């Protein structure tokens, strides 16, 4: 049985083929009279016509799709960010191709190349390292790129991040108000803006409160994972370092701290206070619930999508970045 074509839809609706095409494309539907667009919709439904997005993208080099590159889909931080991206894109007829890299540069490069072949119109990256050659390459080639939750030190790339410095300062103040003066910090990887920035903010907060900045109380974790957090707290507990509280650089590291406390028969906050960062979904279900600095996950994704759409529609615009508040 022959599949209905766009010309069939146009003939049935009594319009030009170009008008039918614009009416069926969410990005251009506003250019068509509402009654005409509805007539085209009815014709398409009656014929069982389905637009071919691949054919459209080959003809126009526009796919109404973007690539969303995530470092670890098992980290509960990222699904709300992805939801924010998708909701904003959906309002204008765009879709997101979501890929998980497992923090593997080779896997990331292969996924990005695959999406470029499919004519995605831009990228939202949640994987950015401070030095990230692939991002520099994409920007140099004219690809619209927006970073979410992270920044780079290289080319000026639009980004949407939370105010980590204020968030860390509030967390330290909370611990000080509880009476803690010997606070340890489990910092994230220092090749990431989140890891480096939160460590810098922690040291500044100690100075602001007149507390000693002891290097032995700072552990650099190689990854933002539960296992890395457990290893770091184990290192601290097995040393002769004196500390009564831990500010973990993110909630996954804090979960690792909870694991170690449980293994050793210690309690939070009885033996050690733990504060996380990110306010991931479900941390209130822990026992005790984890105190954590909230970042606006959904809003980060939504604003990143808005920035990217602007980059796509106004390619000559000067790069703009957004800093969202981190409420305590």
UniProtKB/TrEMBL annotation:
The keyword Transcription applies. GO terms for molecular function: DNA-binding transcription factor activity; transcription cis-regulatory region binding. The keyword Transcription regulation applies. Keywords: DNA-binding, Repressor, Transcription, Transcription regulation. Residues 4-60 form the HTH lacI-type domain. InterPro entries: HTH_LacI, Lambda_DNA-bd_dom_sf, Peripla_BP/Lac1_sug-bd_dom, Peripla_BP_I. It comes from the Bacteria. This is LacI family transcriptional regulator.
